[in-house]
Amino acid sequence: MSQVIFAARDRVQKGSGEARKLRRTGRVPAVIYGRKGGSISIDLDARDLMNSLKGISESTIVKVEVNGQVHEAFVKDTQRDIKDGSILHVDFYEIEGNTLLRARVSLHIHGNPVGVREGGILETPLHDIEVECLPKDLPERLDVDIASLKANQAIHVRDLVLGGGVKLISNPDQVVALVKFAKAEAAPAAEAAAESAAGAVGAAPAAAAPAAGDKKTEK
Question: Which is more confident, 209 or 67?
Fold first, then answer.
């Protein structure tokens, strides 16, 4: 995926009233937050912004051009209208190319596990991991192939293949994906065992009855 570039303008007028005026003209207010505490108020074309945000994750590095100056950044937060889904505001977080950063990388799980084809149930409790690296080494996502996963097998964070220069921060023992037998299959077996046990208990009094009758005959 080629790097996404946002064309932005300086935003001089601030406040909620000015933000509403911007939105009525087809612009979206935004802020670029710097690593050292500063910030730049900007606005962007709403239609271009909506199209460019498609497919972007928290670990996607984008470029924001403001008056000829380029800022590399993450899209950290996007506020949307709950009625129509339109974008109301965007927060960018600027990065520095020679400075280590921590980011969450999404996991793209694909494949049809062997264990599922044999009747097991797939669980994928983890959707991203945290890593530390230079911006140039940050993967946009990690592909996890689970096709060979059998029943009662799991893939853990420690099993993921990270690129060079990428340090794992997340717990390596966390489960990414696992296949286990369906609980529905265990239920009939438990019921059968319970019925068998009940039958055995019910048979005991029937066996004792003749013995009691024999004693009466002897008298």
Answer: 67
